[in-house]
Write a structure and sequence with these properties.
The protein has about 325 residues and is of the alpha/beta class. It has helices at about 15-25, 45-50, 65-75, 95-105, 170-175, 190-200, 225-245, 245-270, 275-280, 285-300, 310-315, and strands at about 5-10, 35-40, 55-60, 80-85, 90, 110-120, 125-130, 135, 140-145, 160, 165-170, 205-215. Strands 1, 2, 3, 4, 5, 6, 7, 10, 11 and 12 form a ten-stranded mixed sheet that branches. It has a two-stranded antiparallel ribbon with strand order 8-9. A hairpin with an 8-residue loop joins strand 6 and strand 7. Helix 6 packs parallel to helix 7, helix 7 runs parallel beside helix 9 (about 275-280) and helix 7 (about 225-245) packs parallel to helix 10.
């Protein structure tokens, strides 16, 4: 079996994809499978860019499906047990794969978050995009260290709540066993939802700083549109109501209301309140589905369900 499969969903940015693939050609371990998922790009531009590289497989979607569907299709088509999902606006570095694979080979580890830096070629000291993900009980998903200058405490391996979807290594069997990315999300917060399900299934997620990836943050999507902001608002709410165990949820509600109010005020000041509110209110149409999700969660949320959560997740989620 191949040591690693790289899955790169991409839409209409062949310039970014070429840079990503060029870095992979330079640094990937021998035998690595590279699979580009063309998410229905016009004129097959992504397929053409990927095909210009030797030994790169292309899976083309018949029309644009969004990141979650494309990523899931790529993982299902991969031939290795270990898979890394990469955004097309990333570039890998020497030894990034070997370090993450060593961590992922540990029993009980389902995902590995590399150290993601904003760049490449920063003007000064490297700036962290993500040192793994965390989740606040009030309903805020966050990247550890985001926007901070790289320092010693970012260079410590440790368990974390989640791995940022821009570049995350997964044990393929675990990823698929818990249901993969929720395809109704389209994009954004799907990695947070997946992290909850991996933890409930008893898996751990690990941060490995020796694995480093550069990320041109938001280059693939550009400036957020109203529709994108609405999806972000909706998916953030979905994660909260789908995943927090009942006892935690009841304690979290006052904090969650405060979080929504604070974010609403910020959106009002930015002039983006309307898509924010549309996203939140759209959840009313999903109440029956959310109730079904919560009924299933109730069967899984035994006291031991969180025993493998890292210290930070226990603090942020209020679990003891």
């Amino acid at each position: 079996m191949r040591p690693l499969s790289l899955v790169i969903p991409s839409y209409n940015r062949p310039d970014l994809l070429r840079l990503c693939l060029a870095s992979i050609v330079r640094h990937a371990p021998p035998g690595t499978e590279v699979l580009v998922v063309d998410d229905g790009s016009p004129d097959h531009c992504i397929s053409a860019a990927a095909s210009s590289f030797d030994k790169v497989r292309v899976l083309r979607m018949h029309s644009r499906q969004g990141f979650c569907v494309s990523a899931n299709a790529g993982v299902r088509a991969a031939t290795s047990e270990f898979v890394e999902l990469l955004n097309d606006d990333t570039q890998v570095t020497a030894g990034w794969a070997e370090a993450a694979l060593a961590a992922l080979a540990r029993p009980g580890v389902a995902a590995v978050a590399p150290l993601v830096l904003i760049g490449p070629d920063p003007a000064g000291d490297p700036i962290v995009d993500s040192a793994g993900d965390r989740y606040f009980v009030g309903g805020i998903a966050g990247k550890r260290g985001h926007g901070e200058t790289l320092r010693a405490d970012h260079l410590k391996s440790r368990l974390v709540f989640g791995a940022s979807g821009s570049s995350a290594f997964y044990r393929r069997s675990a990823f698929l066993a818990v249901g993969a990315f929720p395809e109704s999300f389209t994009e954004y917060f799907e990695d947070v939802d997946l992290a909850f399900r991996l933890h409930r299934a008893g898996w751990q997620i690990y941060f490995e700083p020796a694995s480093r990836v550069w990320h041109r943050v938001s280059s693939s999507y550009g400036k957020p549109s109203g529709d994108l902001l609405q999806r972000q608002s909706r998916n953030e709410e979905r994660v909260f109501w789908r995943n927090l165990p009942r006892g935690v949820l009841l304690r979290a509600l006052p904090m969650h209301l405060a979080v929504v109010a604070a974010k609403g005020w910020r959106r009002l000041c930015e002039g983006t309140l309307l898509p924010f509110l549309r996203g939140k209110l759209s959840l009313l149409n999903e109440i029956p589905e959310l109730c079904r999700d919560r009924k299933g969660l109730g069967r899984l949320s035994r006291p031991l369900a969180m025993r493998n959560w890292d210290v930070e997740a226990r603090f942020w989620l209020g679990a003891r």
